[in-house]
Amino acid sequence: MQSFFKKYISVDDMKKIFTPIVVATMILMLGSCASTKKVAYFQNINEVSLEGSKGLFDAKIMPKDMLTITVSTTDPKAAMPFNLSISSTLDSSGRLATGGSTLQTYLVDNNGEINYPVVGILNVAGMTVRQCEEFIAAKIRPYMSASENPVVTVRMSSYRISVTGEVTRPGVISVSTEKMSVLEALAQAGDLTIYGKRDNVMLIREDATGQKSVHILDLNDANIINSPYYYLQQNDIIYVEPNKVKAQNASVGQVTTLTMSAIGVLVSVASLMVNILRK
Prior knowledge:
5-stranded mixed beta sheet, 7 helices, elongated
């Protein structure tokens, strides 16, 4: 076989045939290496001032939030009208039974209002928890004696964040604290896949009036830490767009895989034949 190749095919001919294939393969490999530059987060972290991120985040109360409100005073009886409770059990006839109870929760309606005992309708949308506590304390103080100094504690129930697109585990995340960053949400979703575009993460947000807005986040840029959209709020939706490689794989699929396999086989054959001709 070695003499056959030497007789009919020269080394120069082999180079003319297979050199373009080798070059094309190397270009593809280099292109893949170049794309990894878009994978790392916070690439310019040493060039960015984080002064803009200074300060603690406070979540705002939004329509559809559930609030638990507790009032404490030196005289427990004075606080009783404001600490409504509901029974946690039902009897055999389906009626509320006596026994263990929990504090009444208050749904913030579409107008941003709650119906609070004694004082009536209160508009609390857009307030932080601390602001809401001070607001309710001021409203109930006239119903108490001068010696009473009510302490109001407001707790927001868990809310939901949706993460979809090119992440490992897309789905709905229940947030039990008042603060979650976009990176924490992505981490709970298993982080972006290698096909996710880190410089084009879409955040869809709804404000207290129901108005939707879209914001593009670049995870490659460390300035995201200073962004007003770094921390998420109720009902935010995060969408990670697939990159060109994923899009091409989706459209070409098996053809691309077969093509790359064929190129690999040809390169191997070319290498084998060149080695034979050199002997």
